[in-house]
Specification:
Layout lengths: L8 H5 L2 H17 L4 H5 L6 H14 L13 H5 L6 H16 L6 H17 L5 H6 L1
Length: 136
Amino acid sequence: MNAAAPPSPYARMGGDPVVGAIANRFYDIVTQDPVYAELRALHAADLTAVRHGLTRFLIGWLGGPRDWFERGPCIMSLHRAFPITPALADQWALAMTCAIAGQEDLDPAIGDAMAEALGHMARGMINFGLADASAA
């Protein structure tokens, strides 16, 4: 007999409400803290759509419903159009780490693993282009 699969991080965290709170806190941080002004400037004035998109992405990524993943382009492709520098990737990773850390009652092991993995993902999106750097 196979043992039942362990609950996903999504389930262990508390599902949609907790993941949504983290995504919304992330954009609150990016909007309110001037340290993230360059990152905020890449986004439209109305953050409703990206708040929803980040929430749905995180839900699926953490093992919940995968509707975001079924809708089309991958996360990397969606960000290819934006000039993501190492500094911007670091800003994104730091803001997400702060958003995760602000979630009360979150298992620290899940929070730490989530922040680390998302930080790696953010840095994997660096695409400011070597051609741009060599042209300077």
